[in-house]
Amino acid sequence: MLKTILRRTGKFAAIAAAGLVMSAQAAEPIKIGSFLSVTGPASFLGDPELKTLEMYVEKINEEGGVLGRQLELIHYDDVGNASNARNFASRLIRSDRVDIIVGGSTTGATMAAVPLVEQAKIPFISLAGAVVITTPVKEWVFKTPQSDRMAAERILTDMKDRGITKIGLISGTGGFGSSGRTQTLEVAEKMGIEVLADVTYSGSDTDMTAQLTNIRNTDGVEAVLNFGFGQGPAIVTRNYDQLGMELPFYQSHGVASDSFLELAGDSAEGLRLPASPLLVPDSLPDDDPQKKVVQDYKAEYEARWDSKVSTFGAYAYDGLMLAVQAIEAAGSTDKEAVREALENIQGYVGVTGVFNMSPEDHNGLDADSFRILEVQNGEWKLIN
């Protein structure tokens, strides 16, 4: 009898101990890792991204967390440096032991981290735009911005709708501008648009008059497209105006923010670019599925930070919400289960667009998720 009691006591003790372990695991926070360009030349990307992640991690926690667990944001500032990004990604994976990574403000930073992510088998949602990030598909890598190829398709489609078939192209030599140039040249050939002039500028250039003069002096050019981000596009825009160039002028989605309008000033009048509807939420029809999501994000961000939203912060919002949705669908933080859940997200209505992921598409957006905006009287206006 005594042995039976002892056996039962031991069994109950083991069950109780297991329950305590499970309870302790359930109480542990879900770790969201991030490396962002919060300072440095790409701070206009990383600053609103970090503010967005901080704000919504806090909000989600106040509402009870995810799977009954709080979220913990662990982030580092890579200052726009790819080597830093790689080191921080390694730290997030090996030392911080995060459950998922939402970050990578730039293409260079993202691609520096990709080999580590793939080797460690940890879900990674990038906030950078180049097509190379998810094409070809990488098992553990996803992203929220539309690709530069989609931007090129949207811009060149708008040009064709205006009867434009011969253009001049100016682009930055950094990762984003270089990839955008490649995609534009490929899409232009496919669409029957001739690129008559093709010039570039570096990130350290402070005047692009010579490159623009080259385009202006090229016979037959009917419009100009600049593919770049950071200070460069604002300089190009001011130089374009100073030269008195009156051809239709396009920028890429790399400058889709109110801060660009502040930098470019009156010189930006009339230019067009592809962007998410975040910059013109009230212009969306009431039956647009994105309208409420976009309006709510804009209102919450601006109330919290007393500054205007940008499409870059929206990439972080979508990245975090996709991560949360995948973890909830997986029912745990098991990395393979979360990865599989991410890969099968359908119909998620975000600020950037409506996401439909698949094993063949880890971005889940198409070119139509871009809206064409034009600067009119110093403000963004929805064209189509």
UniProtKB/TrEMBL annotation:
Keyword Ribosomal protein: no
N-terminal signal peptide: 1-26
Domain named Leucine-binding protein: residues: 29-376
GO BP: amino acid transport
One of the Pfam families matching this protein, by short name: Peripla_BP_6
Keyword annotations: Amino-acid transport, Signal, Transport
Nucleus recorded as keyword: no
Family per similarity comment: Belongs to the leucine-binding protein family.
Cross-referenced PANTHER family: BLR7848 PROTEIN, LEUCINE-SPECIFIC-BINDING PROTEIN
Protein name: Amino acid/amide ABC transporter substrate-binding protein, HAAT family
Species of the source: Marinobacter pelagius
